[in-house]
Amino acid sequence: MDSEGLARLDRRIAGCRACPRLVAWREEVARTKRAAFADRTYWGRPVPGFGPPDARLVIIGLAPAAHGGNRTGRMFTGDRSGDVLYQALYDVGLASRPTSEDADDGLELYGVRVTAPVHCAPPANKPTPAERDACRPWLVQELRLLRPTVRAAVVLGAFGWQAALPAFAEAGWTVPRPRPVFGHGAHVELDAADGPPLGLHGCFHVSQRNTFTGRLTPEMLRDVLRTAATQAGLRPAK
């Protein structure tokens, strides 16, 4: 476990200005704000990962929401996608509370770290391939720092899956060829030459489109989290 190394990485991520389009968008959103948050100070910077440095399970999303993570400075915090994710983590015993409202609400994750392949809020929630690739080194470094303890990963959505596979490969795990195809409930074992394997699990993203239409139900999400947590050596609630 390298807690100081991860803290340094988080600080470096928060200062990144590599992608002009994303910098302009996140800062414009932070200036104009949403009416409901007019009295709040927006974070308006890249959002680092959240969770303990000795996490055994990593959850990888897509990117921060404009008025969620971009406002609060914490992954999946202050938006409806986060409401779904953290409720499920609480339900299976991996979070201290069922809501994630702001970065100072006291929420703790138990053996879980939440991150993303893109750390800035993108327009229309759609990073470009170039922005995804520019941000990949941050995810690679984070995964390398987590390698001593992490044993399983849940990737939310096809975009995250496609972005994460090369990052896992660069961080030291072997990604099969042809590359595994994303699907809800997909499970792949990624071997490593110098350490234990990683269990990779696919899950539909916790977007409002998926949760409002029933494509992803709370039970489906809890099932994936329980399976991955058990493989990671955690003890999820039944």
Automatic annotation (TrEMBL):
What Pfam families has UniProt attached to this entry? UDG (PF03167)
User: Which keywords does UniProt give here?
Assistant: 4Fe-4S, DNA damage, DNA repair, Hydrolase, Iron, Iron-sulfur, Metal-binding
UniProt xrefs under InterPro entries: UDG_Type-4/5, UdgB-like, Uracil-DNA_glycosylase-like, Uracil-DNA_glycosylase-like_sf
Keyword check for Protease: no
Presence of the UniProt keyword Cytoplasm in the record: no
The Uracil-DNA glycosylase-like domain sits at 48-225
Coiled-coil annotation reads none
Q: Which CDD domains match?
A: UDG-F5_TTUDGB_like
Family per similarity comment: Belongs to the uracil-DNA glycosylase (UDG) superfamily. Type 5 (UDGb) family.
Q: What name has this protein been given in UniProt? A: Type-5 uracil-DNA glycosylase
